[in-house]
């Protein structure tokens, strides 16, 4: 899930992602949720080198958990893995991974550089 740059600038990230998440999970049972991984990747951050601030990423991830709790229950919401993608770098990974609702990183271009990727997978939260 993820918003465009104009949606982000209009402070609509949470609302846009909420609609996308609800539509994406329509018809998915509580039992199937153990096999679901959600990725929040702002469209404006894909391949641009721009990254959401840890606070923005955390707020969207928390919104996702709240939606999951409403759709299923709190236990399911807490157990569902929610990843952040969108230009994850060695410089941004520590602060992102320190957020309580970010469970992992969806790494793109940085995974092609072994030094950068090594630093990312060995983050310090």
Q: What's the quick description here?
A:
This protein is mainly α and 125 residues long. Helices cover 44% and strands 10% of the residues.
Model description:
The longest helix is centred in the middle third of the chain and has 18 residues. The chain is mainly α. A three-stranded parallel sheet has the order 1-2-3. It contains six helices and three strands; from the N terminus they run H-H-E-H-H-E-H-E-H. It starts with a helix and ends with a helix. It is globular and about 40 Å long.
Please tally the β strands and state the result: 3
Largest sheet: 3 strands, parallel
Class of secondary structure makeup: mainly alpha
Strand content: 5-15%
Work out the helix count.
6
First-to-last CA distance = 24 Å
Kindly report the spatial arrangement of strands forming the biggest sheet.
Answer: 1-2-3
Order of helices and strands: HHEHHEHEH
Q: Residue share in helices?
A: 40-55%
- Radius of gyration over alpha carbons? 14 Å
Mean pLDDT across every amino acid position: 95
Low-pLDDT sequence parts: none
Quick one: overall form?
globular
Topology:
Blueprint: H1 5-9, H2 13-25, E1 37-40, H3 54-71, H4 74-79, E2 81-85, H5 93-97, E3 104-106, H6 114-121
Parallel strand pairs: 1-2, 2-3
Helix pairs in contact: 2-3
């Amino acid at each position: 899930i993820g918003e465009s740059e104009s949606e982000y600038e209009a402070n609509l990230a949470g609302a846009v992602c909420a609609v996308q998440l609800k539509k994406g999970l329509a018809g998915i049972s509580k039992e199937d949720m153990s096999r679901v991984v959600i990725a929040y990747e702002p469209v404006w951050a894909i391949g641009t080198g721009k990254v959401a601030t840890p606070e923005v990423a955390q707020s969207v991830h928390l919104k996702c958990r709240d939606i999951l709790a409403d759709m299923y229950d709190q236990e399911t919401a807490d157990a569902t893995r929610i990843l952040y993608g969108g230009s994850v770098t060695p410089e941004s990974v520590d602060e992102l991974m320190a957020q309580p609702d970010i469970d992992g990183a969806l790494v793109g271009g940085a995974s092609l550089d072994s030094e950068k990727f090594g630093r990312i997978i060995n983050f310090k939260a």
